[in-house]
Amino acid sequence: MKKVCLDAGVLDLFLSENCTKQVEMLLDGVREGTVRASIVNPVLSEVFFHQCTTRGAKDAAILLKNLLDDYPIGCIELDRDLLFSAGKIRCQHASTLSHIDCMSIAYCLDSGAEFHVTEKTIKHIPQNTLARLRVVRYAW
Amino acid sequence: MFHPLNQRFTRCQIEGHDVTMLTSIIMDKTRNAIVNKRALVTIPKAIRDRFGFKEGSRITFMVIDGALEIIPCLTIEELKAVRKVSKEKLGRVFDEDHETELRLENEKP
């Protein structure tokens, strides 16, 4: 089964009214169990913030609760080793990657999961510097 | 028309007493319910009728801003249709958030 780690942008796109077909297909795969999806815990907070800004706190809470109920997306709590790895990646790419990006990347490099991101995040991931990272990109 | 996202129970104090309000209507006795020993509660008829609860309806309990909310379970598609937000708008929020995050994280202490 394909193992993927989702960036906040992918979930934001999915929760928008004009979500792209590619993201819909990905989430259909998650719901049907053909794709095993995960997010690192702080990404959930990031998505909540984006939804809260645009829809309000109550709708954001309801939307995300239903999303996690209906779609089996694993929420990953990073252990100390992964947190250190994330810190190291951040140290190398401080001007382009946020802490949360680095946490997702550290998890992907450790677990072998594909990192599914939107073009908004991918433009910040430096070419060739994270050669082992398998990235799948979605148009916004 | 009823929609779960537009309804809420709110706890507040009136003359020193804790009361729960549904939208702006103070609960009367016909809306009271008792938790039995199996922790079951009968949803009062007035509430069932008003909110369209039927046998098999799925509801969820959430604590939002410290208040208990009883919310019918809807699909993501139904929820997305209630407050439509375009990907363009979410994209702007995403970009601003990312920039702010980087700026704050890189600020020298």
Could you describe the 3D structure shown?
The complex is a heterodimer of chains A (140) and B (109). Chain A has 140 residues and is of the alpha/beta class. Chain A is 56% helix and 17% strand. Chain A has a single domain (2-138), classed as 3-Layer(aba) Sandwich (Rossmann fold). Chain A is built from 7 helices and 5 strands. In chain A, helix 7 (119-122) links the parallel strand 4 (114-118) and strand 5. The model of chain A has no long low-confidence stretch (mean pLDDT 90). Chain B has 109 residues and is of the alpha+beta class. Chain B has one domain (4-106). In chain B, 31% of the residues lie in helices and 24% in strands. Chain B is built from 3 helices and 5 strands, in the order βββαββαα. In chain B, the strands form 2 sheets. Chain B has a 3-stranded antiparallel β-sheet, with no helix packed on it. The radius of gyration of chain B is 20 Å and the shape is elongated. The chains are: A alpha/beta (140), B alpha+beta (109). Chain A binds chain B through residues 8-9, 12-13, 15-20, 46, 49-51, 53-59, 61-63, 65-67, 69-71, 94-96, 98-100, 118, 120-121, 124, 140, and chain B through 4-5, 8, 60, 62, 64-65, 69, 71, 73-76, 79-87, 89-91, 93-95, 97-98, 101-102, 105-106.
Highlighted features:
heterodimer, A: alpha/beta, Rossmann fold, 5 strands, 56% helix, globular, B: alpha+beta, three-stranded antiparallel β-sheet, two-stranded antiparallel ribbon, 3 helices
